[in-house]
Every structure is written in structure tokens, then in C-alpha cells.
Design goal:
Blueprint (H helix, E strand, L loop, with lengths): L17 E6 L4 E8 L4 E5 L10 H9 L3 E6 L15 H15 L5 E5 L1 H12 L6 E5 L14 H8 L6 E2 H5 L14 H8 L2 E3 L4 E4 L3 H13 L2 H4 L7 E7 L5 H16 L3 E7 L5 H4 L1 H15 L7
Length: 305
């Protein structure tokens, strides 16, 4: 059974983000700074996604008394896209440089999908650097455990589609994620637009290059999340989507979630039942409430030592 959601509305106030350029480990990264005060919260998107996926969550977090920034990782959104550096060691150096530039100390680090793998790598390798770690439907199990018996099989299974579609057809996908009408909410359309480049014929293609995407797949293949779990010295929140369309992956995910709770020193597990992988798009209100409760509690927990 999933953990029931608190249906009471969060206290919110208008929040307009500032788009900022910040240094990474070489490239310039884009940060969507929602302002606010209190415990810092840093939001990392998934593979071939971008910081706008958090727009429905971030404004609610600032309304809950938190200091919130969503970051475009290298190659994504409005950040620079070099031809290398998609291994986890480089990605966490990107994050470290961005946090220093933003003057954010000991944030609650939140990652969705691949962003959860980056967040986990950062927290495991830098004891005391975060106040808490939230993994949103990601980093529960290594790619090598489910995507294929060999690296080649995993690369074949996880290779991204090479799409080329009219921009309006691409943006119409927003209607899949929410009840904002057949065209979807404006912020969801903005998220979709930030993930593509559009030619002079109005045809949209993925902004994140195929070869760079495959570098990420290789890094995911090499990472073993279970080996990192015990190294995290702060409270952990696991937000997991119970998608009925997951098929065989559903059982793998449930076993992995149970194992993660055993291995993390301090973990809370919340199931988002009947929810697709992109929880920030489909359940932003419920996710924001869960993250706000976790972030406000995590800052009260003393670190090891």
C-alpha cells in the first residue's frame, strides 16, 4: 500500500524564478533560481529532461519556506553541451561548482531518474555535504541489473529515439501529464519546449545529442547504486512511482525499494501509486508536499560525528 497523501493545500505564495548562469566543471550551466529562504533544496532532472520539469514543484517548495534552485545538468536545457564529461565523477564536480557559485551549503539534494543517480553519487562521496537526499523514481537499482545481460544489450535497449516531429505535435504531449485540458498546462509545455531544438521548418529534435546520451547510458551501466547506499550519512527519502504499465520492471522496482530501505542508514519510502515515472509532471502537488515535509525535517537532524 502507498503512503496516503496529506490532501490539505500547502501554504503558497507567488514565486517567480530567476534564470542564472553558473559555472560547472568547465561548461556553463543554467540554474533556475526560485529564491526563498530557509533550508536550501536543489533539484536535478533526469536524462534528456531539463530543469523546467520541476516548475510545478519548485514554486510550492518556496511557499513552504524553503530556498529552491533547479539545475540544468550539462548538455540539457539551457546549459552548455560539451562532447564529453557525462561520467558521474565529472557530473558531481559540475554540481559542486554550481553549489559553490550559488552559495548553497548543505542542501537537501533531490534527483529524478538519472538525476537521482547523480544526487546519490554526490551524497555518497561527500559526507556532510547535504542535509538530506531525495531519490524520485531513480537510483534504486543499477542499469546492469535490469537492462540487459551485457553492456551492448543495455545500450541497445536504452538508446534514445531519433525523433523529428512538428513542434506543435511535440508540445501536444503536455496533455498526457495533467488535467489542464487537452493542450496541457503552460509550464508543462515550457518543459517540453526546453528539451528540443527547432529548425526553420518548425521541426523539433532532441536537444541532447545521441552520442552524449549514450555516454550517460555507459556511466549508468558502470554505477552500482547498492554499493553507495551505506555511504550516505543523512536522511533519505525514496519517492517511487507505482506505474501499472511498468510490466516486469514493477517487480524489480519493488524488490529494489525494499532493499534500499534496508541498506540506507535512514530512509523513508513513499509510493506514488498509479503514477508514471515522471512524478514531477503528473503529481507535482503531492510530490512538493512530500519533499517539503522531508526538507524541513532533515535540517533538524544532526550529521554524523
Amino acid at each position: 500500500m502507498g503512503v496516503p497523501y496529506d490532501e490539505r493545500p500547502m501554504q503558497t505564495r507567488a514565486s517567480t524564478p530567476t534564470d542564472r548562469a553558473v559555472p560547472g566543471d568547465g561548461p556553463t550551466l543554467h540554474a533556475r533560481d526560485w529564491g526563498g529562504s530557509g533550508q536550501p533544496v536543489v533539484l536535478l532532472h533526469g536524462l534528456a529532461s531539463n530543469a523546467r520539469i520541476w516548475d510545478g514543484v519548485a514554486s510550492r517548495l518556496t511557499g513552504a519556506g524553503l530556498r529552491v534552485v533547479a539545475l540544468d545538468q550539462r548538455g540539457h536545457g539551457s546549459s552548455d553541451q560539451p562532447s564529453s564529461g557525462y561520467d558521474f565523477a565529472t557530473l558531481v564536480r559540475d554540481l559542486e561548482a554550481a553549489l559553490a557559485a550559488l552559495e548553497l551549503e548543505r542542501p537537501v539534494l533531490v534527483g529524478h531518474s538519472w538525476g537521482a543517480n547523480v544526487a546519490l553519487q554526490f551524497a555518497a562521496g561527500r559526507p556532510g555535504a547535504v542535509a538530506g537526499l531525495a531519490l524520485v523514481d531513480g537510483a534504486l537499482v543499477g542499469v546492469a541489473a535490469w537492462a540487459g545481460a551485457t553492456r551492448e544489450e543495455a545500450r541497445h535497449r536504452l538508446a534514445p529515439p531519433r525523433f523529428a516531429v512538428p513542434l506543435e505535435d511535440w508540445l501536444a504531449r503536455a496533455g498526457r501529464f495533467d488535467a489542464g485540458g487537452p493542450g496541457g498546462q503552460t509550464w508543462v509545455r515550457d518543459y517540453l519546449r526546453a528539451g528540443v531544438v527547432v529548425d526553420d521548418q518548425g521541426v523539433a529534435r532532441s536537444r541532447f545529442h545521441f552520442d552524449n546520451h549514450m555516454q550517460v547510458v555507459d556511466a549508468l551501466w558502470d554505477q552500482r547504486p547498492e554499493a553507495l547506499f551505506p555511504l550516505v550519512d543523512r536522511p533519505v527519502l525514496l519517492c517511487v512511482a507505482g506505474d501499472p504499465d511498468d510490466g516486469e520492471l514493477a517487480g524489480v522496482k519493488r524488490d529494489a525499494a525494499a532493499r534500499a530501505v534496508e541498506l540506507f542508514p535512514s530512509a523513508t519510502l513513499t509510493w506514488f501509486e498509479d503514477t508514471m515515472h515522471d512524478i514531477p509532471l503528473q503529481r507535482p502537488v503531492e510530490l512538493a508536499a512530500e519533499l517539503a515535509r522531508f526538507a524541513n525535517a532533515a535540517r533538524e537532524v544532526p550529521g554524523r560525528g
